[in-house]
């Protein structure tokens, strides 16, 4: 019951269930959005009055009329399954009649060594350092953005990826050439953090369980993001003023501009750097298990055989 004595609204129930299961804010916002669109699509009918047929109709509409990507359709399906199973406690029919969205078969751009260097050279500042980490350490974009100071181990020449895809931790390489740029970057970030502390702020977001277990950790240097946002913002869950990590759109736009400036006539994204990392590790002579384990992806080896192999320079001082 809410404080007013009335049952909580449906969307508040969904939000509460997601938070109890410790889903990310990104997942929470996306799920709430899909539930809202589903209800509006069916003229504001309550989901209890609907079921598998209505879900199928909505998802088919997304594929046929909206022409959404297959991943978007799957995201909508996951949100609605969560609504029915976890919130409404209603078991749906096993067979959902859905017209699946078409899944395009994209191959990552096979950049040559010269093309990779040209794109990296066209970047500058923090964006260049981030792209070098994507390429030299095989990181996904969000894995890079979510790095904390404590995850970098210069002495061991490695960094730790926490809660990567599938909720798994892994260690990967930290290129020697990036040690000095990272040190200078962290000095600047630390000065920002110390200024925040002097002004009465300095908190960073921590998962709920960790925030309760270590209440003072959110202000400690080691828990700060390696790539913090340029401005503080209010955390939507706690209501406290914090400094979050940078938004992924910044680097995505910078990489597209850099590819244009470098006259690389290929589709270059942040993920392109991660893909080339696997190729270069293999080219350097590491075995298949290393290629699979370092990036945290079991499909690297088979996917990589489709492309020519440029010279290895990414992880040995990239």
UniProtKB/TrEMBL annotation:
Q: What's the name of the protein?
A: Integron integrase
Domain of life assignment: Bacteria
Keyword DNA-binding among UniProt keywords = yes
Instruction: State the organism named in the record.
Output: Roseiflexus castenholzii (strain DSM 13941 / HLO8)
Q: What family does the Swiss-Prot or TrEMBL record give for this protein?
A: Belongs to the 'phage' integrase family.
Q: What are the Core-binding (CB) domain coordinates in residue numbering?
A: 1-88
Q: Which UniProt keywords apply?
A: DNA integration, DNA recombination, DNA-binding
- Any one GO molecular function term: DNA binding
**Which lineage do the record's taxonomy fields give for this organism?**
Bacteria, Bacillati, Chloroflexota, Chloroflexia, Chloroflexales
Q: What residues does the Tyr recombinase domain cover?
A: 106-318
Recorded hits in Pfam families, A to Z, give: Phage_int_SAM_4, Phage_integrase
Compositional bias, Basic and acidic residues, is annotated for 295-308
**What GO terms describe the biological role, i.e. biological process, of this protein?**
DNA integration; DNA recombination
Q: Where are the transmembrane segments?
A: none
| Annotated spans, Disordered | 295-318
């Amino acid at each position: 019951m809410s404080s007013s004595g009335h049952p909580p609204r449906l969307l508040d129930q969904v939000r509460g269930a997601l938070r109890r299961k410790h889903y990310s804010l990104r997942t929470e916002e996306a799920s709430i959005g899909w539930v809202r669109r589903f209800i509006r699509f069916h003229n504001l009918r309550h989901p209890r009055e609907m079921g598998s047929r209505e879900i199928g109709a909505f998802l088919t509409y997304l594929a046929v009329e909206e022409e959404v990507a297959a991943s978007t359709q799957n995201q909508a399906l996951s949100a609605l399954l969560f609504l029915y199973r976890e919130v409404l406690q209603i078991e749906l029919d096993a067979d959902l009649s859905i017209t699946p969205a078409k899944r395009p078969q994209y191959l990552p751009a096979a950049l040559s060594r010269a093309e990779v260097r040209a794109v990296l050279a066209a970047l500058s500042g923090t964006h260049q350092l981030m792209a070098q980490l994507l390429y030299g350490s095989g990181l996904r974009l969000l894995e890079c953005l979510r790095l904390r100071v404590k995850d970098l181990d210069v002495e061991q020449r490695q960094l730790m990826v926490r809660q990567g895809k599938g909720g798994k931790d892994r260690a990967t390489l930290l290129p020697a050439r990036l040690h000095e740029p990272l040190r200078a970057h962290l000095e600047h970030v630390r000065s920002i953090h110390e200024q925040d502390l002097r002004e009465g702020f300095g908190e960073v977001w921590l998962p709920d369980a960790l925030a309760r277990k270590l209440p003072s950790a959110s202000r400690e240097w080691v828990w700060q993001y390696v790539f913090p946002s340029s401005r503080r913002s209010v955390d939507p869950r706690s209501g406290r003023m914090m400094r979050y990590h940078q938004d992924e759109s910044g680097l995505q736009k910078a990489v597209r501009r850099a590819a244009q400036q470098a006259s690389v006539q290929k589709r270059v994204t942040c993920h392109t750097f991660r893909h080339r990392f696997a190729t270069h590790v293999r080219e350097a002579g590491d075995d298949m298990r290393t290629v699979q384990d370092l990036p945290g992806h079991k499909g690297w080896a088979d996917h990589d055989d489709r492309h020519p192999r440029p010279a290895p320079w990414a992880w040995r001082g990239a």
